[in-house]
Amino acid sequence: MTQRDVVFPPGRQALYDRNHYSPAIRSNGFLFVSGQVGSREDGSPEPDLEAQVRRAFDNLNSILKAAGSRFDDVIDVTVFMVDPQSTFETIWKVVPEYWGQAPYPTLTAVGVTWLYGFDFEIKVIARQTEQANQ
């Protein structure tokens, strides 16, 4: 079996080890990032929704940076929102702070009933530059 090329952001490996998954995997020029939530360092949810969304993006960006990428390299986004009818406006007020300029990545938004105590999760696929793969 081929060894997975795992990317760990600094300071959070214990959280991923405890939950038995990898934050991101490099494969064939792409970076597949696990869903990121607005968790504090200990894994607990950020209670304020806007702060939770910002922290989810910050957690995502730390993984992208560890892989030698940035949000501009993201090509596909999936977001999960608990109760999107009541949370969408608040969430989408924060997203442009991190999204960057057009052209934007593709997006799928999914309404869910449960996210392990969180209200927002973002998972992405990013292209890896030649420099990032070296």
Automatic annotation (TrEMBL):
GO molecular-function annotation terms?
deaminase activity
GO CC annotations, alphabetized: cytosol
Its domain of life reads Bacteria
- Which InterPro entries does the record cross-reference, listed alphabetically? RutC-like_sf, YjgF/YER057c/UK114, YjgH-like
What Pfam families does the record tag this protein with? Ribonuc_L-PSP
List the protein's name: Putative endoribonuclease
Question: To which species is this protein native?
Answer: Advenella mimigardefordensis (strain DSM 17166 / LMG 22922 / DPN7)
